[in-house]
Design a protein that fits this description.
With 460 residues, the protein is mainly alpha-helical. The protein contains 20 helices and 12 strands. It has a 3-stranded parallel beta sheet. A 3-stranded antiparallel beta sheet has the order 4-5-8. A two-stranded antiparallel ribbon has the order 6-7. The protein starts with a strand and ends with a helix.
Length: 460
RNA sequence: GUCCCGUUCGUCUAGUGGUUUAGGACACCGCCCUUUCACGGCGGCAACACCGGUUCAAAUCCGGUACGGGAUGCCA
C-alpha cells in the first residue's frame, strides 16, 4: 500500500510542541514507508484562523525539517466540496436538517445530562416535508441508536463504543459552512490519506467521523491516536509550563536535530537508544512502538540531548551559529574563538551558552571585569602575576611551552598552580570560570596576554 | 453525570508469562580527574498505583478500585 499521511494543524497560534511531535510522527511514518506526507491547514473556523499563525506553523515545520511534500491544502478552500458531501448525506438519509433553536437545544442538553441519555434532536425522526421553510437550520449526522462500533487503532488497540452514546454532530452550520467534523473526513478521503496519526484528544471524534465514512461508502483510514504531551506537572501543556512554541525553543538555542531527537523519544522508543539520527529514525520508526500514556516534557533532558549534538558539531558550523550573537572585533578574535571552540563545546548545553561566555575572546585590549573575579586580584596576587608576566617574555607560545615556563615559575616561587590559577584567569578573562586558562593564553597570543596582565595588575 | 483512554525510578523509557537481585538515559548525591566551572570516569539513591483472580510461575493475562487525561460545542 502506498502510504499517505498528513499533519493538519488549525492556524490559531504558533506551532507548539505537541503539534510538532504529531507532525514528526506523520513525517516519519510516511518516510519509513516511502510514502507521502501532506499538510493541511484546518481553517474552517475563520474567526480564529490567522495568516500569521499559518506562517508561524510553516516556519516551525521548516526548521524541524518537516515541511510537507506538496503545498499545503487550505481546508476552507474546499468548502463547496464539503457542502456537496453534506447534501449527499442528507439525501441518503444519513444526515438531517435540524431546526432546533439555541434555547431548545440548551434544555435538551440539560435534560440529557440528568437522564444520562445522549443529546438527540427531535428533527432526526422528522421527514423533509416537515422542514420549516425560511427558518435557519443546521445539518446533523444521524447516528445509529443501537449496536456498537469498533475502531482498530494502531496505537490504542481495539476501542469499542456503543453507538447510542454518539451524538448527532453538526456537519453544516446555520450559515451553511461545514464544520471540522465533516471537513476532516472529506479532505482525508479526497487527499487519499491512508493513515491518520493525530492526538488522542480526537479518539472519541473518530467514532463520529467513522459514520461519515460508512455513510458515504468510503474506506476509512488506519487511525493512530497518540497520547498528548503534558507539562512537567503532568497536566495538559499550557502557558504556565513556560515556552510552548517550537520557535521559542529555537530562540533558546536548541538545535533542530536535538529537538527532533527529543520529540521522537517522547512517547516512542527503540530499545535503549536515546539519541537517534534522522536517518535511523526513518529506518526504525513504527506505530506499534508508540506508548499509550502521555509523556511529560522535560527541559533538562532536552538540554542534555542538545549538548550531545553540540559536541558532535565541527568548529566552523558551530562558529557560524554563535557568530550571529556577537560581533568579533577582529580576525584575531575569530581565530581565538575557533581555537577555543573544541574546548568550549564540551561544557555547553546550547550554542547560546558559548556565545554568552566568550566575551574575553571577542575584544582586544582591556576586558570587563566581573565583580567576583575582581576580588581575586589582591595587591599580593597582582605582584605575582606581574612577575609571571615577566617570566613569560621568552616562553615558547604554545601549550607545552607555556606549561614549562609556568611550572618553572611556580617552583621558583614555591607556589602551586592553585595559588595563581584563579587570579590568572580573572586577570586575563575577567571571569571566575572558563576553560583551561593556559589554553586561553595560547588562543590570545603573547601580546594580548601581556597587555591584559598589565592592565589588570596595575597597582592602585 | 455519561462514555473513552491511560498508570514501571522525580522524568523519558526497556520489559510482550519464567533469561530480572526490574535494565538504560536525564535529574539528584558521593568519589576520582582538575588552576576554576564544566566535561569525562566510577559508584549511589530511586519504580512495576492498589486489591482480587487465572497460572507451577505475572510488571507482563483478566476483573474491580483509586488517581490522571480526553470527549460530551453551530472549536479544531
Amino acid at each position: 500500500m502506498n502510504v499517505v499521511t498528513r499533519f493538519a494543524p488549525s492556524p490559531t497560534g504558533y506551532l507548539h510542541i505537541g503539534g510538532a511531535r504529531t507532525a514528526l510522527f506523520n513525517w516519519l511514518f510516511a518516510r519509513h514507508h516511502a510514502g507521502t506526507y501532506l499538510l493541511r491547514i484546518e481553517d474552517t473556523d475563520k474567526a480564529r484562523s490567522t495568516d500569521d499563525a499559518i506562517a508561524a506553523i510553516y516556519d516551525g515545520l521548516q526548521w524541524l525539517g518537516l515541511a510537507g511534500d506538496q503545498p499545503a491544502v487550505s481546508q476552507s478552500a474546499q468548502s463547496a466540496r464539503h457542502v456537496e458531501v453534506a447534501n449527499a448525506l442528507v439525501a441518503a438519509g444519513a444526515a438531517y436538517q435540524c431546526f432546533l433553536s439555541a434555547e431548545e437545544l440548551t434544555s435538551i442538553r440539560e435534560a440529557s445530562k440528568n437522564s444520562g441519555d445522549t443529546v438527540r434532536s427531535p428533527w432526526r425522526d422528522r421527514g423533509p416535508s416537515e422542514a420549516q421553510l425560511g427558518k435557519s437550520f443546521v445539518v446533523r449526522m444521524k447516528m445509529p441508536s443501537d449496536g456498537s462500533t469498533t475502531i482498530k487503532d494502531a496505537v490504542q488497540g481495539n476501542v469499542t463504543v456503543q453507538n447510542k452514546v454518539l451524538d448527532d454532530m453538526v456537519i453544516l452550520r446555520a450559515d451553511g459552512t461545514p464544520t471540522y467534523m465533516l471537513a476532516v473526513v472529506v479532505d482525508d478521503h479526497d487527499m487519499g490519506i491512508t493513515h491518520v496519526i493525530r492526538g488522542d484528544d480526537h479518539l472519541n471524534n473518530a467514532f463520529r467521523q467513522y459514520m461519515v465514512y460508512k455513510s458515504m461508502g468510503w474506506q476509512e483510514p488506519v487511525f493512530a491516536h497518540i497520547p498528548l504531551i503534558h507539562g512537567s506537572d503532568g497536566t495538559k501543556l499550557s502557558k504556565r509550563h513556560g515556552a510552548l512554541s517550537v520557535g521559542a525553543y529555537r530562540d533558546m538555542g536548541f538545535l533542530s536535530d536535538a529537538m527532533f531527537s527529543y520529540l521522537l523519544r517522547l512517547g516512542w522508543s527503540s530499545g535503549d537508544k536515546d539519541i537517534i539520527s534522522r536517518d535511523n529514525a526513518v529506518r526504525l520508526f513504527d506505530l506499534d512502538r508508540i506508548g499509550k500514556s502521555p509523556a511529560r516534557f522535560d527541559n533538562d533532558k532536552l538540554r542534555d540531548i542538545n549538548a550531545n549534538y553540540i559536541k558532535q558539531m565541527d568548529s566552523h558550523s558551530l562558529f557560524e551559529l554563535i557568530a550571529k550573537h556577537f560581533t568579533a572585533s577582529s580576525d584575531a578574535a575569530q581565530q581565538r574563538i575557533l581555537y577555543m571552540l573544541p574546548l568550549l563545546k564540551e561544557r555547553a548545553k546550547t550554542h547560546l551558552d558559548i556565545a554568552e561566555s566568550v566575551s574575553y575572546l571577542i575584544v582586544d585590549g582591556p576586558i570587563d571585569m566581573d565583580a567576583d573575579a575582581a576580588v581575586l586580584l589582591t595587591n599580593e596576587t597582582k605582584d605575582i602575576l606581574l612577575d609571571l608576566n615577566k617570566a613569560l617574555t621568552f616562553a615558547k607560545w604554545d601549550l607545552e611551552g607555556l606549561k614549562v615556563v609556568i611550572n618553572t615559575f611556580l617552583e621558583e616561587k614555591d607556589l602551586k598552580m592553585r595559588d595563581i590559577g584563579l587570579p590568572l584567569r580573572a586577570a586575563i578573562t575577567g571571569k571566575k570560570q572558563s576553560p583551561s586558562i593556559i589554553e586561553i593564553m595560547v588562543a590570545l597570543g603573547r601580546s594580548e596576554t601581556n597587555t591584559r596582565l598589565q592592565m589588570a595588575c596595575k597597582l592602585l
